[in-house]
Design a protein that fits this description.
446 residues, seven-stranded mixed sheet, alpha+beta, seven-stranded antiparallel sheet, 3 domains, 21 strands, single chain, 2-enoyl-CoA Hydratase, Chain A, domain 1, PH-domain like
Length: 446
């Protein structure tokens, strides 16, 4: 047993919002996903992974992960729904799984109004398509189609590969073509940066455009841990090494923050003599909020509240959490310009939301994606995984940017469609040797 284990942690706990029940003993945490009518075992992990992040006050447990605090109430016993083991026949019943999926959204999802979806009508529309004889491929498609109506980047349904493949063969599953954005990113770097440096192949790239202007391209708020990936490796070798280190890590999130901190310190050392930095987040679709916050702390002047967040609890919300940040001792003293696009999403938008509090930071591009809530990950009785949005993020004026996204100070005419956007950027770069967003900054500081 962990010598620092506090027995007050042991027992059963139910979250305020989020739909979780925890069963904790001296070695393991078992997580259950609970609704009014169901309880599904989700995952389990060693208590050592979170023990240092737990506080227990009599009948309340507080767990801090990243920037968020989760509050749990002590239960006298495991709820009856969770102690009853489902038989395989019920667990795989398409009707039962539909009810669990629909009810989870009904109890926790927060943006039905903003996304113009009547969830009761969705029930009527899709429930009649499901029967005990519904095949797995049909079931996956029905679930996917119902959730797609929300048009929410943090809403997803994931089935085993072979089931999705069968759905595709039935011409039901839409095949979304990848946009070759890395091709444009590479061309952009080649055009503007003479001697670029990079971390983890292409997660972060930086260099000088000229003596006055530095350029930093951060392409994910994840994959930033320092796991020994270097420029001599192929992408396949780098990916293998990274995943191997990730699997053996005791605390991946800490690794991510330590990694991005090390990278940012290197960046600011290299660019300390510049007067301006262009931070390009146009190709960054998110990752960890904590990584985004860590990056922002190198560009703020004083400790302050950047935004708030709260979770849905039945027909109300939990108390607001005020998310604050403190500037680094070696913060950048020049002017920051952030490039953004509709591709900029999730954790990347957390950085943009925080940047709105800084009058000296200029945002350039198009509105961001508009998906702020953490993706609340759940599991169906049949083992399929899904996610949803159950939190509201607001700026210091209590404005929420879900769906609409964060607007830039300088608007560029970027198409909403990702393929059209990529094509436009690449065409302009090929024909003129210039990027409109970067040139807008260079023209301001002539």
């Amino acid at each position: 047993m962990n010598s620092q284990f506090n027995r007050s942690v042991e027992g059963f706990w139910q979250s305020q919002g989020y739909g979780w029940v925890l069963a904790i003993n001296n070695s393991t945490v078992q997580v259950f996903d609970i609704t009014q009518n169901s309880c599904t075992p989700n995952t389990s992990y060693p208590i050592s992974q979170i023990l240092q992040n737990i506080q227990v006050k009599e009948y309340e447990l507080i767990l801090k992960i990243g920037i968020t605090k989760y509050t749990f109430d002590r239960l006298p016993a495991l709820p009856n729904l969770c102690s009853k083991k489902l038989g395989k026949k019920i667990a795989n019943n398409p009707i039962y799984n539909f009810e669990v999926l629909w009810n989870t959204f009904n109890e926790h999802y927060v943006f039905f109004k903003e996304r113009n979806v009547n969830w009761l009508i969705s029930y009527e529309k899709y429930r009649k398509k499901v029967s005990k004889k519904t095949t797995e491929a049909q079931q996956y498609t029905i679930f996917r189609d119902m959730l797609n109506e929300l048009d929410d980047g943090h809403v997803s349904i994931d089935a085993p590969f072979e089931i999705i493949e069968r759905a595709r063969k039935m011409n039901i599953e839409d095949i979304k073509l990848e946009v070759p954005v890395s091709k444009f990113r590479n061309a952009l770097i080649a055009q503007y940066i003479k001697n670029p440096k990079a971390h983890n192949i292409s997660k972060t790239i930086w260099g000088k455009i000229n003596d006055k202007v530095g350029y930093v391209q951060i392409n994910a708020m994840s994959g930033q841990a320092d796991y020994g990936v270097d420029s001599t490796m192929t992408k396949k070798q780098a990916k293998t090494r990274y995943l191997d280190k990730l699997k053996s890590s005791v605390n991946p999130l800490t690794d991510e923050i330590d990694g991005v901190r090390k990278t940012m310190n290197s960046i600011l050392t290299d660019l300390k003599d510049t007067k301006h930095i262009i931070l390009d987040l146009r190709f960054n679709s998110g990752g960890y909020d904590s990584v985004a916050m860590e990056i922002l702390t190198y560009f703020i002047n004083k400790e302050m509240t950047l935004f708030t967040k709260k979770q849905r609890i039945k027909d109300s919300f939990g108390a607001k959490q005020f998310i604050t940040a403190r500037p680094k001792n070696n913060k950048y003293l020049g002017k920051l310009y952030i490039l953004q696009s509709h591709w900029s999403a999730s954790a990347t938008e957390i950085l943009l939301l925080g940047a709105l509090t800084q009058k000296e930071i200029q945002l350039i591009g198009s509105c961001s994606k508009g998906v702020f809530s953490d993706a609340l990950e759940k599991k169906l009785p049949n083992g399929w995984e899904f996610s949803l949005s159950n939190e509201i993020y607001q700026d210091t004026n209590e404005e929420c940017y879900e769906v609409t996204g964060v607007s830039p100070h300088l608007e560029l005419d970027y198409p909403l469609n990702e393929k059209q956007w990529y094509t436009k950027l690449m065409t302009i770069l090929k024909e003129s040797g210039k990027d409109e967003a970067i040139e807008s900054v260079l023209n301001q500081i002539k």
